[in-house]
Amino acid sequence: MKKMLPTLVLILVALGALRAQDEAVFNHYVQNPIILNPAAAGFLDEYTVQVNARAAWSGFINSPKTVAARLNGPVGDNFGIGVGIFSEKAAGIQRMKGQIDVAFRFGLGKEVKGVSPFQAAFGFLTEFQRITLDANIVNNSRYEPGDQTIMEYLEGKNVFDAGLGIYGSYLENTFGGLTINNLVANRLNDISGSTTDEGFNFTLLLGHRFRIEDLNVNLTPSVMLRDVQNAPFMMDFNIQAGFLDDQFIAGLSYRNLGGLGMLLGTEINGLQLYYSYDLGFSEFQSYNNGSHEFTVGYSIDRKSIQENRKKNAIQDNRR
User: Fold this and answer.
1) In a domain, 41, yes or no
2) What is the pTM of this model?
3) Domains held by the chain: number
4) Does the N-terminal or the C-terminal CB of the chain have fewer CB atoms within 10 Å?
């Protein structure tokens, strides 16, 4: 059975990825909501660069490995923009993707000290990806010669897609957003009649940040719901604790698909380091060592840049 499993998983992963046309979900979306939602681009009025790396089912042959690099920040007073590059390899599939996020930010409610209590953003993403299959897949005993889908992806298939998102926060404590995924892919499937799914693909994130002054701790419970075509419905329950003004972060997550995750991280002077490890509850867990994820990022607040420019201008005028 153990000898057959790599072949079976290779086929299941390949077929599932080709049909779903959707890459792995990173776990650090509470710290970096732009992972899920284009409307979060520049939302915190910071310029952020980050690199995410995820190794799922480590120790298993041809297990999925995903790397992403992102850059996002504000443009003017009301706009945000982000760009991202992604690379993923799972079984015999290689996926490369480029993505652009554009967001429009605005405030609602009576301003307090010049700031609206409710901050919101509407965003749009567009992406282009190229998916190819390893030529060695034709040597697999389960390969059926002349399969049109396999031949198409062996030559490399280009896929264009788009999505919409809304994201917001209330009094900087309650946050959340909704993303409608795969708008183009869904529409093309509806036109061709290749699907009977009447729903739409979406990702929902909701959370709230509690401050416990006596302990100098920030608690952040959150939930993430994800429903995309040709993939199982996903629900994450997360609880994270930030100590010493979030200089040390620890968290736990439970996934309805059968998994438990642990998060450790730190945020010091704009530097962000996060690591998470998750295990599944299914029998397949006995064939792998769990999944690992790393995030390295750095953020610069736009106000600090503007203040430094003013200081430099004053010093220049004095000379």
Assistant:
1) yes
2) 0.84
3) 1
4) C
